[in-house]
Structure formats: C-alpha cells, structure tokens
From TrEMBL:
Key words of the record: ATP-binding, Ligase, Nucleotide-binding
Sequence similarity: Belongs to the ATP-dependent AMP-binding enzyme family.
Coiled-coil regions listed: none
Presence of keyword Disulfide bond: no
The name this protein goes by in its record: Putative Long chain acyl-CoA synthetase 9, chloroplastic
GO molecular function: ATP binding; long-chain fatty acid-CoA ligase activity
Nucleotide-binding as UniProt keyword: yes
C-alpha cells in the first residue's frame, strides 16, 4: 500500500503505478548472469530465471 500512496503523492497516472511487485533478497550482479558488467539488463536471462514468478504476477 505504501507504493500506491507514494505514487499518488508523486501524481503518477494510473497506468504508471505497478499493481503487483515482488521483492528479491539477492542483488542482480554480473555474477548472477542477470546484468552485464555495465549493469545493463539481460532481459532474456531475466525472463528465463523468473518465468514462474512473472506468470503468477500477470495471471
């Protein structure tokens, strides 16, 4: 609920406010394979690693 309140205070539009989020305990590092050495997202690796979680969030 705090995310929603902060988004409203920032005057975000409804489509800009996430309806569901999942917090992860481990950071994304180049060693994890989820980002490059320049910390750019490796989108395909992320999709594969979190396929189940993404399916649940968008179900």
């Amino acid at each position: 609920m705090e995310v929603y309140k902060a988004a409203k205070q920032a005057r975000l539009e409804k489509f800009e406010i996430p309806s569901k989020i999942k917090l992860l305990p481990e950071p994304w590092t180049p060693d994890s394979g989820l980002v490059t050495a320049a910390f750019k997202l490796k989108r395909e690796n992320i999709r594969k690693a979190f396929a189940d979680d993404l399916a649940k969030l968008y179900a």
